[in-house]
Automatic annotation (TrEMBL):
Cited InterPro entries: Gln_synt_N_sf (IPR036651), Gln_synth/guanido_kin_cat_dom (IPR014746), Gln_synth_cat_dom (IPR008146)
UniProt xrefs under PANTHER family: GAMMA-GLUTAMYLPUTRESCINE SYNTHETASE, GS CATALYTIC DOMAIN-CONTAINING PROTEIN
Biological processes, Gene Ontology terms: glutamine biosynthetic process; polyamine catabolic process
Keyword Nucleotide-binding in record: yes
Annotated family: Belongs to the glutamine synthetase family.
Protein name (database record): L-glutamine synthetase
Cofactor: Mg(2+)
Lineage: Bacteria, Pseudomonadati, Pseudomonadota, Alphaproteobacteria, Hyphomicrobiales
Length: 465
């Protein structure tokens, strides 16, 4: 029940080179005139500079102000407090290209490339608050143990009619039949075919960038889609999610639609998630540490689950980063409302899919589609890592329907941020500077939200209180 095109070998060479010299050759062969030098910020927004190819290779290293990693989604900055302080001079950070991310920008009219950069201080120290560095920090913990995690994200998003007035609710777009969807069409091929031209553009733009789509399906909501990515190295998959979001938005604009990754864009429709499938390999043997030789689960697998149960509440502010994200956690839906676990059970937050022993994995169903992929993957892997290191034990797996059992997960952003900021184990993993900065940003975003009066307040309070 999925729409699937193109084969991976054809697109593998379209993305990434090994060195500065190889990048010069790659760009020259393709007649690339401009390069987008980009950096994902804490919200997952692409920041950076556009520069001519000649300047990129002849000029100094790219710099940007340190404040790009202290900015809220609305463009504001949190005030200083006892744990968070701005860079007093807002001095420059230095950015180095990761040439393995070099690829085309196929929606640009002129030949253009894009290249993801990493952030460093003047002294060459990785910036603690840069999302790619946060993920690398967690991956180093695994590497130190001789482990190599693998992940496979699943991204849900909605297609909606263009909406230029935020006071009006979003609506499904018109498909090729000339009619918008009104009901729910889970896994419907005909509903998917309503957007054939757009989907073809998504595949074509993805292929041009070397991005590998495993499957694309129609999800439960009206004009809600899901893209599944092939499993791989966590940093590479986070890069792909980051680039896919840009790609899908651009493809939708070509067809006079918006693509939105809001967690809950419409009140009468399901929310959108970013489920993360996770397994851990022995780096030397290449075997899954979650399975014993006889095929049964290992103690490490059970502790990995238990780590999620113990620490997911404290990282929920990363997995559900905005006020809107918590509207997705609704009883009686497929969105998780607890940290229970079970075998092939989609009514709990932690699902163990049916698989062969070599592919044994845990699906974290808590993250929403608005989460920064670098931070969400880092947070989820951090939970599992702590579980293994502390030899935690999970409770019993749940069978049956637990979609009504709200348990452990925080219900709002401020509660979630408080749990994160007070968890010593996570402060050790992520570093005090990142935790303090992230906490300050989220608190400031909440204050911005509180300045807006909602329709609910006008509906029920205007004449009744």
């Amino acid at each position: 029940m999925s729409k699937k095109k193109k084969s991976a070998p054809k697109i593998a060479s379209r993305r990434g080179v090994e060195s500065f010299d190889a990048a010069q050759l790659w760009l020259s062969e393709r007649g690339i005139e401009d390069i987008e030098c980009i950096v994902p910020d804490l919200a997952g927004v692409a920041r950076g500079k556009m520069m001519p190819t000649e300047k990129f290779f002849s000029g100094p290293v790219m710099t940007m102000p340190a404040s790009i990693f202290a900015q809220t989604i609305s463009g504001d900055y949190p005030p200083d407090d006892e744990r968070f302080q701005h860079n007093t001079t807002d001095g420059d950070l230095f950015f180095r290209a990761d040439y393995s991310t070099l690829t085309a920008v196929p929606w640009e009219s002129d030949p253009t490339a894009q290249l993801i950069h990493d952030a460093y201080t003047r002294e060459g120290i990785p910036v603690e608050t840069a999302p790619r560095n946060v993920l690398k920090r967690v991956l180093q913990l695994y590497e130190d143990e001789g482990w190599a995690p693998l992940v496979a994200p699943e991204m849900e998003f909605y297609l909606v009619r263009p909406n230029t007035d935020p006071d009006y609710p979003l609506e499904p777009p018109t498909g090729r039949s000339g009619r918008p969807e009104v009901g729910r069409q889970s896994y419907s091929i005909s509903a998917l075919n309503e957007f054939d031209d757009l989907i073809d553009d998504i595949y074509d733009l993805s292929e041009a960038q070397g991005l590998e789509i495993d499957t694309l399906i129609h999800e439960e909501g009206a004009a809600q889609m899901e893209i599944n990515l092939r499993h791989g190295h966590p940093l590479e998959l986070a890069d792909q999610v980051f680039l896919f979001k840009r790609t899908i938005r651009e493809a939708a604009l070509r067809h006079d639609m918006y693509a939105t990754f809001m967690a809950k864009p419409m009140s009468n429709q399901p929310g959108s998630s970013m489920h993360i499938h996770q397994s851990v390999m022995d780096a030397d043997k290449g075997t899954n540490i979650f399975s014993r030789d006889d095929g049964e689960p290992t103690s490490e697998f059970l502790s990995f689950i238990a780590g999620h149960q113990a620490y997911l509440p404290a990282v929920t502010c990363i997995l559900a980063p905005y006020v809107n994200s918590y509207r997705r956690f609704t009883r009686g839906t497929t969105a998780p409302v607890n940290v229970h676990w079970g075998y092939d059970n989609r009514t709990v937050g932690l699902r163990v899919p049916n698989s062969k022993p070599g592919a044994r994995r845990l699906e974290n169903r808590v993250p929403s589609s608005d989460a920064n992929p670098y931070l969400a993957i880092a947070a989820s892997l951090a939970c599992g890592y702590l579980g293994i290191k502390q030899r935690l034990t999970p409770d019993e797996p749940r069978s049956g329907n637990f979609s009504e059992d709200m348990h452990a997960l925080p219900r709002g952003l401020l509660e979630a941020v408080a749990l994160f900021g007070e968890c010593e184990e996570l402060i050790d993993v992520f570093g005090e500077k990142f935790v303090a900065t992230y906490r300050a940003i989220k608190q400031e975003e909440f204050e911005t939200f509180m300045k807006v009066i909602s329709p609910w307040e006008r509906e029920y309070l205007l004449l009744n209180v």
